[in-house]
Amino acid sequence: MKRVNAVVVGAGAAGGIVAKELAEAGLSVVLLERGKWYTAWDGRKDDLRNQRTTVLGNAFGPDDERNPRVAVDLNGHAHVVRASGPGYSNNAACVGGGTLSYGAMAWRYMERDFRMRSTYGPVAGSTLEDWPISYGDLEPYYEKAEWEIGVSGDDSGNPFRAPRRKPLPMPPLAPNREFEILYPAAKRLGLHPFHIPMLRNSVPYNGRGPCMRCRWCVGFACEVNAKCGTQNTVIPKALATGNCELRTGCMTRQVLTDAHGRATGVEYFDAYDRRQRQDADLVVVSSAAVESARLLLNSKTPLFPNGLGNRYDWVGRNFQGHSYTGAFGIMPADIYDDLGPGASIAVCDYNHGNPGLAGGAMLANEFIRLPYQFVGMLPPDVPKWGQAHKDFMRSFYRRAIAVQGPTQEMPMFSARVEVDRAVRDYWGIPVARLSGDKHPHTIEIGAFAAAKAEGWLREAGAVRTWKKLAGPGLTGGQHQAGTCRMGDDPKTSVVNRYCQVHEIDNLFVIDGSVHVTNGGFNPVLTIMANAYRASDHLLKGWKGTRYK
Amino acid sequence: MDRRRFIVAGIAGTAVGCARPGGPWRFFTLQEARTVEAVCAHIIPRDRDPGAVEAGAAVFIDRQLAGFYKPLRPAYRHGVAAINRESVRFAGRAFADLPAASQLDLLLRIERSPETKPFFDLLVAHAMQGFYGDPRHGGNRERASWKMLGVASPPVRGRA
What we know:
The complex is a heterodimer. By secondary structure, chain A is an alpha/beta fold. Chain A has helices at about 15-25, 115-120, 135-150, 175-190, 235-240, 290-295, 370-375, 385-395, 440-460, 525-540; strands at about 5-10, 30, 70, 80, 150-155, 195-200, 245, 250-255, 265-270, 275-285, 325-330, 345, 365, 400-405, 415-425, 430-435, 465-470, 505-510. Chain A is built from ten helices and 18 strands. In chain A, strands 1, 2, 7, 8, 9, 10 and 18 form a seven-stranded mixed sheet that branches. Chain A has a seven-stranded antiparallel sheet with strand order 5-6-12-13-14-11-17. In chain A, helix 1 packs parallel to helix 10. Chain B has eight helices and no strands. Chain B is about 55% helix and about 0% strand. The radius of gyration of chain B is 15 Å and the shape is globular. Chain B has one domain (about 5-145). Chain B has helices at about 5-10, 15-20, 30-45, 55-65, 75-90, 100-110, 115-130, 145-150. Classes of the chains: A alpha/beta, B mainly alpha.
């Protein structure tokens, strides 16, 4: 393949942005994506086969047949797991990555989310640390992500938000029923409710129409293209420059390095399973926390016997995601309005400053629950089947509200991604092996958030409530992060503050892998902002033909 | 809430459901299909709204066993046989031929036994999918469960 300036591995939230920034600056870019490019026309609404409910498979990849992983359970037993099955920690494999089918909450982390260690001190058993960058370093790029990708909402009612220079580009969607019920209740409790920022058009924006408010949102591709992902924003822009070539169906096998320890390109299998080599002046790995770590670990050479960036055994460590903790409530009357996306109102009162806790969680009402999803949410004392189960579904489906949020995680050195010695994927590449546990303090934070969610629902008039708590075991999934930690000290991190692998100047990891901690928020806007920021710095160091 | 009382109250109609085969079956033998339908009739019984059988949950399961659930074929072959074995052992007849109250007793026993519980749980999960899931997979016939819950079925664009 013709040599290019940059090869980007993974066309998701970060990779799409990096490709566009580099291509617009005039670099020749090849964007490799193992999945397909779906369009709005593929917006199939299948309650059993999407990215959230995967009992009949992942709608947007990866496929079960070719992409096994190994998951080690809490008893130390290793299991081969399917991409659509439990324990896999899946994120979609397609152009746009998770952003094609996400719920699209667009959170800026708070200032303290970047300074967890300074704020709370050490937490025993956790690798809790500060980011090497601050909120202020990311702020301009948060703004860029909000305006280029497109965010609607209104966080002016949130006094805890970090300072912003510009408001969001689009107003929020009109409030749904749950908003109207939960808003006054939060006010009565002295909380500060507001409209969730969402990467979703509420008005025509960027040449696409607004949300039509159907109930098939999170987990689905938007049928009217109102959700804003990289597949319908920056990736088309990257291609329009003429400098970027997107190759789908391409599974990257390894990052290639030369005898001097510089990256020279990647080796991959193309859509016809032919082995290809793409030479490049610089390599950007944007494959999300599991696959980015796997790729670095699978790129061993005599110079890098432990894999790239792994001299001090930090690649794959601190694997984290989010447990969703909260509560369900049954309201006294029918409140179902069938207005998507459903999630509409949030509070950040419990993200920080909770007595005795190192962090907290944002709390928001949940996306519309499809009937089959609701089956999995019933109170523990309702029988799992039979007349009583049916009666509960019939009586309460239209009366339920869920409030929950992503719990701030205490990173664990022992929660990790490795490559398995025995199991290989369809292409013969060693697969990711996931092992480790959740920090007990994460579970405590979750229990606190669940109690607060329950209190909010009760104040809103719920006649019956029950909690959703975090159990033990790894988290990961769509919010996966942490495996290529960003830091100033090469001995305790994988990339520097500009997402450059410490030992290899022209190799970058740009995605959620670099997150030191993952906030009490959905991480995607931070992944996007950091991709803009890292691209910006990369371009400043670009000297025409090579990276300095 | 007393589960048994509710279940027993809803059982009157199940025999009708069992009498109407959902075939032609792609994976199940007729005997297996009868058994699965008879179990489904208890998992989501018919009352003023259709139950799992009327909504085609067994058809859903059969179709998936010819498709995405192919790897679960042995579990079904053995699991359904085990239900009938238990039935013959305790009541001298195949499960589908028992009166509804005896069927329910047997299912509660099957749910408690560590050997038979995993398959029963699987069957419960699949029946729920077939009843509450998308009609395109062979279950939720005429959107029976969505009508019961009062959820509209707007026309959707995109691939069917």
